[in-house]
Amino acid sequence: MNWHLFVWTVLGIACSPFLYYLLAIYSTIAFFGQRSRQSPPSNRAFTPPISNVKPVRGTDPDAYTNFASFCQQDYPEYEVIFCVDNESDTAVPVLERLQREYPKAQVKILFGSGRVATNDKVAKLARMVTEAKYEHLIISDSDVCAKPDYLRSVIAPMRDRSVGAVTCLYTLSAETTLVDRLQSVGMLSDFYGNLLVARTLEGVKFTLGPTIATTRTHLAEFGGYPSIENKPADDLWVGRLIAENGHRVELLNYTVESVADFNSFGDLVHKRMRWLVVQRHMRLWGHVGLLFTQGLPWSLLAIALHPTVKTAVVFLGLYVLLRVALTLLIGAWGLQEKAVWSKLPLIILWDALAFAMWLASFTRKTIRWRNAFYLIQDGQLVPVPTSTP
In the sheet that 50-55 helps form, which strands lie side by side, from edge to edge? Predict the structure, then answer.
């Protein structure tokens, strides 16, 4: 292959991220556009009793407000079950206060999972599901804040018996630092775009930790939480396994708030690296394919190989235009977040960081989760000494 042909081949490949961005824009319009094409479904006709289960370790910022939001639901009958490690957990006084102040919510506190598992969060979920009073379950992370219509809205799609699970998007609350804003831009311009493209191409085969609605029966069909208590990414596994059993997973056009709790830039990097390494193990070729969604490095490579003003204007211009359009569609139009415009300059910084971390993910043997390090071997989490890099 001569140099001229090589350059034009690379320029052609460098256009692939633009096709991906267009697909992401189409997927975003298709998803969020549903609310303007359809009248909102009534969520008052289907109100089965619900067990809301929440694994807890310590207290996140605004813990009382977040926990209390699940006890203030406009819903006829529900219980809220918390599971902490032991009686000395700092969350216990907060949970006991909830028991006193919200008797209608039937707040129950469990101590310990009663199991030995690498993923203690999932072990706690296994116990809570076993002790839940009701068939319908809503599983949510401890740092989530819900609106009063949360239970009604999230359970509503399960009126259709073909739906095996429901999940929804989330936004960060109280973004106070540059790291918080950078994470928010990453979600709006990158993470959610990937999810919506996946929904378009193959349907929803995932669930997200801030909200999973399902039933004890659907969990039992794949062995329940005990079958995944030593795996990473339990929320993704729940959605995948329910879908593999022939049930539909619904991504709801509804949002909850999650605490923006990154204490440092390092926390953000470790969380992103954990997600990338887990994805590499769960879906290797999908992870490799992320290369063709990276508009910034491909545009710079195109300019380096064909250094003309026209090349720079076309590639950088299309890159910026499509990235800004996608971020505004998801953030300002879809999620109706405020101040999205002020975050747009961070897109390039995020894309550069995301590409560097994607490259680094192929060299990582461990992930860090809750200040401990783990290997992923045969799809299982294996603890290693914390001194391992």
Answer: 107-111, 78-84, 50-55, 136-139, 212-215, 163-173, 248-259, 144-145
Structural domain of 90: 42-177+203-262
**Residue 74 lies inside a defined structural domain of this protein:** yes
> Over 70: is that where the pLDDT of 38 sits?
no
Residue 189 CB partners (closer than 8 Å, separation 6+) = 323, 326, 327, 330, 347, 350, 351
**Residue whose pair of structure tokens reads 């094409």 in the numeric block:** 37
Which amino acid belongs to residue 352? A
**If you average pLDDT over every residue of the chain, what do you get?**
91
pTM of the prediction?
Answer: 0.92
1 falls in which pLDDT band (50, 70, 90)? low
CATH of the domain at 52: 3.90.550.10
Residues 58-85, mean pLDDT to the nearest whole number: 93
Q: Exposed, middle or buried: residue 53 (CB in 10 Å: 0-12, 13-18, 19+)?
A: buried
Query: 104 in a domain, yes or no?
Result: yes
